[in-house]
Amino acid sequence: MTELDTRARDLVRPDRVHGSVYTDPEVFELELERIYRQGWVFVAHESEVPEPGDYVTRRIGREPVIVSRGKDGEVHVLANRCAHRGNRLCNAERGNSTTFRCPYHGWTFKNDGALVAVPMRGGYSDEFLAKRSELGLSPAPRQDSYRGFVFASLAPDGISLREHLGRATGAIDRLLALSPDGRLDLRAGWMKHHHFSNWKMVIENNVDGYHALFTHQSVYEAVREAKVSHVPSKVEVYVRDLGNGHSEIDYLPEYSRLDEEFVWFGRAPRAKLPRYVEAMEQAHGKEDTHKAFVVGPPHTMIFPNLFLAEMNIMFVEPLAPGETIAYTTPALIPGMDEMNSRMLRRCEGAMGPAGFLIADDGEIGARNQMGLAATRPEWIMLARGATTDQHDETGTVNHDKSSETPQRGLWHHWASVLDGE
Amino acid sequence: MTSIETAAVGVDPAIASFLYREARLADEARYSEWEELWDDDGLYWVPMSPDADPARDLSYIYDNRRRIKSRVAQLNTGARHSQTPPSKMRRLLTNIEVLERDAETVTVGSNFVLYEYRYQMTTWAGRVIHRIRVGDPARGPRLVGKTVHLVNAGGPVPTLAFLL
User: Fold this and answer.
1) pTM of this prediction exceeds 0.90
2) Does B49 touch chain A (CB under 8 A)?
3) Nearest CA among A116, A156, A139, A141 for reference residue A66
């Protein structure tokens, strides 16, 4: 295992981090080990594999995995590597198959990982064949899900998924409160956007309430006003470190103050969404439906790789210290076509490589990475709002949305994970 | 209706010149002039797969006329950081075929290679389908549809904030 010369804690101070955390290949290797192998990582959503035999392929850190639904209805997370000679077994992004047959020597595995056929078995000893059951696809040592979001860890021991998620489960609940039956459909396809910046820049930026006025100036100037002002003093929008590296921008106080529905959804009037409104009121009652429509979805980063981007879902995959892939898809609501067609168009408008917002985040991220080639000054400043943070039962909160509270929370957690604390 | 076989040699010079102008205006970041090529019901579409259904599937770009206008307005602010300064670009449009033709509309398919220089050289390639309204000679040809099937639509794709 990679060991840094220094402890990660020495690279993180309460109000600043060392620039090398974004650029140092040793830091990157240690992150893959401690965060992406040993920790919990989001891998897929259950709606992506609704039927037995359905599968998608993903990566956990660098490791290719197959996420499949077996005949038993269970979701399996399996190493995408033939147990014989290591060929990457499944080479499609998604599909349906009861078995995976390796094209190299024909070994065949069930979609729950069991080895079911070894051709020309006469060439093997009885002793070897008796141990065939041990030669299945390697399952992720730990796998668990929370309300449809499937996570895995490549280490056998560690804290439970619930412990890891901590207060972040509330963000998933907040999203699912907008679905009449508490389900989502994540099958519209993932935009894969190649970012030329460190993965932590992407996730930090997702919960940065300071940059919008500058990075996204062109949107507000040319296209439309922001849903609520991005001038911190004009809005009651909070930022929050939820603990365990999770963090969010919370529009709830501002939306509640306005008491207007769908501010977060282009202020769409109820009349445009009659079937959805009806289904929501049937499922949750009038009062809770109104509340859900006012409060809206979460804007929450779940450490290390899952971003609940309001009505979109993003996850990141680190490729190299300066390269990341961001995957984005809308959080469609099963059967609610009038919502979903809007969500598709809104996702395309804002997100991904051509999005009105994220294209510029990508550019700024790439320039950030280029800027950090300068090794002086050594530190990056994250002091904004440090003296006005408040602690309560929801985490560490700052009532100024431009505070760097989410980033401080992320880095504090990052250092403790890398140091194995 | 004209068959593909006979069409390859029969691209109307006015249509070819319209395609080349569209390509040049996009290459040279002449956003407003590019926008003027579009008719009121235009659709600019960059799907993520060749058989995508925009009613169900996410696209990289699915701009109706209003969003085309917004995209151009954003580029024109000078604060669209991902195109500030604009990428240096040149594209080649080739293998041009008329796929369909009636009194109102000509549908043209072609292949393209686009070289984009921004920090480094990026090569983009694909097939583009133009639908051009030709029914009103007084107004000249007008763009009603541009669909771009990128060779690397499966991704990952780098930022593409320029006009494809």
Assistant:
1) yes
2) yes
3) A139
